[in-house]
Amino acid sequence: MGGFFGVASQQDCVFDLFFGIDYHSHLGTRRGGMAVYGKDGFNRAIHNIENAPFRTKFDKDVHEMQGNYGIGCISDYEPQPLIIRSHHGTYAITTVGKINNTEELIQRLFDVGHAHFLEMSGGEVNATELVAALINRKENLIEGINFALEVIDGSLSIVLMNKAGIYAARDKHGRMPVVVGKKDEGYCVSFENFAYKNLGYCDYKELGPGEVVVVTEKDCLTLSNPNDENLKICTFLWVYYGYPSSSYEGVSVEQMRYNCGAKMAQRDNVKPDTVAGVPDSGIAHAIGYANESGIPFSRPFIKYTPTWPRSFMPTIQSKRDLIARMKLLAVDELIKDKSLLLIDDSIVRGTQLRETTEFLYQSGAKEVHIRPACPPLLYGCKYLNFSRSSSEMDLITRRVIERLENGNVTDEILQEYADPESEKYETMVEEIRKELNFTSLRFNRLDDMLDATGLERCKLCTYCWDGKE
C-alpha cells in the first residue's frame, strides 16, 4: 500500500517531515522518500527500506536537507517522490493507489506524442511517473490533477509540491484518507491523522472524495470541491491497515475493532478458556470479544519486536513461512492444555494462520478456535495495493470454491458463497476449517462488521467480500 506526509511551514520543515513520514511505516516496507523545497531549490532522497526502518536509512539525509516545504512517502512498490520538470515548472510528486488501466493510459499518452517512460527494475512503469504525465497533459496543475483523478480506473491520491505550496488530492471515491493538520507555524497533509499529533498539529480538515487543496505556511485553500455522495472508503482500513490510534471519517480504528469483536462474541457459542489476538491487528478485536463474552483475554504468544517491528517477509514462500513462525514466541503456561479462541484480522492465503495454529498445537494447546474479524475474502482488491497477488486463486476461499464447484465458478455462484445464511457458505467454511486444521472456524458477518464502523453502508467499499462496486 503506502502512505504520505507533507509540510508547509514558516520555519524549516524537515524535522516534522521526517517524523511525519516515519509514522506511516506500517503501510509499506520497500521504499521511502523525502523531497524538500527551500532557498536552494529542490532536494530529494529515496532509499530501499526492506531491511532497515525509515529512520535509520534517512538519518543522514535529515541533517543535510533544508526547506520550508516538504513531502515524502512510505511506498510498498514505486520509488518516489519524483522530481518532474514540465511546462508547469518543476514539482515533486508522490502518489498512493492502484491503477488498473496502466497500459491503456500509456498508449493514450503515446498517441498524443508523449516520448517515453522509464521502466523500474521489474519492467513496469512507475505509477507516479504515469500520473505526472497525465497531469502534464493539461494547461494548469489543477486541471491536470483533476484529469488524472478522472481517467484512472482504480484509485489514486496525490501529494504534489512546487514553489507555490503543497497540493493534496483525495481519490474520487475517497477509498483512502487524506487529512490536513494545522499549527501556528503552518500546515501539514497526511494519510494518517495520528501522524501529526505528536508534532503539535491539530485536526484541520479531512478531504472529501475528489477534493483538491493547496496548503502554504499561511493557509489551506480548496481548489476542487468534494463530491461526498461518491464516498466509498475502504473498510479494511479499520479491520487491518489502520494504526490503532488512527481514525477515518471520525471513526476510531481501535474502537471499531472493539465493536467488531463484541459483535462476533454475540453470535458465538463456544466456551474456550481464553481469547487471544494475532499480533498486532487481531489484538483489539480480541479485547472487544473478551469484554463482551466475559471470557478472559490473554497473550499466549508474543511477537518479537526488537528486530521484527514490521512484517518484513522474504519473497521465497518457504522463508516467509519460517519467519512467520520465528517472530512469534510462545508463553507455554498460557497455552498448554488450554482451549484457545484466536482472532486474526482476516484469512487471505491461509498459510500463516495454519502455521500459527500448528505452532499452538505443538506448544500444547488442546483446541484452537479461529475467528477472523472480517468475512471471507472472495475477490482480489481492485482499488488498493494491499496484496500483489497475481491471481484470485491465491485466496484460500477461491481455491476451495473452485474445488467444490469443479471449476465452474460464476459471479452468481460467488454471490451464494458470500451469503452467510446459505448452505454453500457453510460448506466453504467447513472445507477451510479442515484444510487449515482449526478446531472450529467462524467468520465475522459483513453486516456486523459494517455496523461496527457506525457509518452508512453506502459509504463503505465492500468489494473484496461481496464483489459489489
How would you characterize this protein structure?
Strand 5 (82-86) and strand 6 form a beta hairpin. The longest helix has 15 residues, at 253-267. The protein has 469 residues and is of the alpha+beta class. The strands form six sheets. A seven-stranded antiparallel beta sheet has the order 3-2-4-1-10-9-11, covered by helices on one side. It has a six-stranded antiparallel beta sheet with strand order 5-6-7-8-12-13. It has 16 helices and 23 strands. Helix content is 31%, strand content 24%. The model has no long low-confidence stretch (mean pLDDT 92).
**Radius of gyration, in angstroms, nearest whole number:** 23 Å
Q: How many strands appear in the DSSP assignment? A: 23
Q: Return residue spans where pLDDT drops below 50 for at least 5 consecutive residues.
A: none
Identify the strand order in the major beta sheet.
Answer: 3-2-4-1-10-9-11
Q: Beta fraction of the residues?
A: 15-25%
Count of individual helical segments: 16
Major β-sheet, in short? 7 strands, antiparallel
The global form is globular
Helix content: 25-40%
Average pLDDT: 92
How far apart are the first and last residues' alpha carbons, in Å? 20 Å
| Helix/sheet category | alpha+beta
Concise summary:
This protein has 469 residues and is of the alpha+beta class.
